[in-house]
From TrEMBL:
NCBIfam families reported in the protein's UniProt record: PRK05753.1
Name used for this protein in its record: Nucleoside diphosphate kinase regulator
Keyword entries, A-Z: Kinase, Transferase
Gene3D superfamilies in the record: 1.10.286.20, Transcription elongation factor, GreA/GreB, C-terminal domain (3.10.50.30)
Keyword Kinase among UniProt keywords: yes
Keyword Kinase belongs to the record: yes
Length: 133
């Protein structure tokens, strides 16, 4: 991912993700997510800005080249399914910590870079008071 905007991650999400990554098989996405966590600004969940994509957030985003819009929920791997993207999928790892209005490049099918822009945060657990999700 060549374009790396600043990201913010809650300490709770970082702890849970570090535990997940310690058990995950090695992959490019695992390596990328580890690097994202290392460069992230960590904040207590209670201080998380309500415009930042956190775990279990539902986000409206647009793939900028094709213009297609998606509503996705960022989840842990065992919860992935239709419209629920795993944090261990390339787009999931790319979304974590982004703020509304930010864009990021992520590897699409065949390795072709795609650009995803965050349009709106429809739900964020921290903003809703659901910090234990």
């Amino acid at each position: 991912m060549s374009n790396k905007p600043p990201i913010t991650v809650s300490r709770l999400d970082a702890q849970r993700l570090e535990a997940l990554l310690s058990r995950a098989p090695d992959s490019d996405v695992v390596d990328a997510l580890e690097q994202e966590l290392l460069r992230a600004t960590l904040v207590p969940a209670a201080e998380m800005p309500d415009t930042v994509v956190t775990m279990n957030s539902r986000v409206k985003c647009r793939e900028e080249v094709g213009g297609r819009e998606y509503t996705l929920t960022l989840v842990y791997p065992d919860e992935a399914g239709p419209s629920k993207v795993s944090v261990l999928a390339p787009v999931g790892a790319a979304l974590l910590g982004l703020s509304v209005g930010q864009s990021i490049d992520w590897p699409g099918p065949g390795g072709k870079p795609l650009r995803m822009k965050i349009l709106e945060l429809e739900y964020q657990p921290e903003a809703a008071g659901d910090r234990e999700l």
